[in-house]
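Q: I'm teaching a short session on how sequence maps to structure, and I want students to see two examples side by side rather than one. Could you give me a first protein with its sequence written out and its structure tokens following it? Keep the formatting plain so it prints cleanly on a handout.
A: Of course. Example one:
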Amino acid sequence: MPVPQPQQNQPVPATAGFPADALRQSVHQREERWKAYLRLIAIGDEKALALLYDESSSLVYGLALRITGDPADAEEAVADVYTQIWKNASRFDASRGSAPGWLSILARSRALDRIRARANREVSSEENSTPEQVSGDSPEIAALLSQQREVIRAALADLSEEQRTPILLAFFEGLSHTEVAERLTQSLGTIKTRI
């Protein structure tokens, strides 16, 4: 099928030379391939995992890097994502979302885990050091951060368990509201209200 050529003095569309139907078909083919890989991974096919990694790792890495802002943390997040895929590919449900969407959710979650781990290491390092050894922040900033941590701890302590648990899962484990609802076996609306 010939690609229509723009007339003179008309802007060239962004997909010029690549028809929209071909683009849609390419995206659909990728989706079908990735779903097939996930089905094979669920039954232990290592080659399918390697193929999925080859085709999707740039997407996963790019997202993890944007979230973490650190190449080393992004690489660790990518490793965590594919480990999780290997262990839990059977959990992918095509009726609930696309394969790239599922990989993006995993990447986001693992990247947030890396950020939390980094923050925990920094807090632990600060707690085990003398006040003079704490980071280069001024004493005022260190005091403000300490006060903010205490306010957050106190606020969480004032909440009921049914309010506190979804908040901790969403903000400190990086789960989506849907994932929190699934983990707590409660409706999505209830979780959103409590958060």
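Q: Perfect. Now a second example for contrast.
A: Example two:
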Amino acid sequence: MCIRDRPEAQLDRFLFKVEVPALDADTMAKILTSRRRGRPPEVDAALQPAELEELFDLVDAVFLPDAIANYIARLVAATHPKRASQTGPVEGDSLVDRSVRYGASPRAAIAIGEAARAAALLRGLPNVDFVDVERVAVSALAHRLVLQHSAVVSGTTARDVVLQLLQDVPVVASRLPEEVV
């Protein structure tokens, strides 16, 4: 079976994985008494289609500097086992090498870039900053990693891996050219 045919690969199509905490008993009771035959409640539209298009245009206008794009690319590349040490100062047996079976695809980089643009817009900024990438990276990246069974059994989560990568991958690539070293 090819990786793209696996159910995990289908998660790559979603921008974010939103972690929803368990409901308390009172909320669950309200759902049980207010919903018949599993029908969700009626909800009014938050935006009209034209308003949504206007927001997309505003997000598209947010500038993504080359340094930020490079950081996103190195962050996503670092999700791949045996490549993690090539993207930053991670030496030897990294959490990625021990825990990740399949790293993130280029869609992950696109998702982080687009979500970081929206995060910058929400902060009222004309361009993306490293803070915006860090703000969206876990939600945009964690569900795109397929962990080793041994990592799952030991309690390691994809969120743990992404948080470690955010610490390990430097925001600015700082390698000197080989002829200088």
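Q: What should students look for in example two?
A: Point them to this: The mean pLDDT is 84. Also worth mentioning: Residues 51 and 57 are 10 Å apart (CA to CA).
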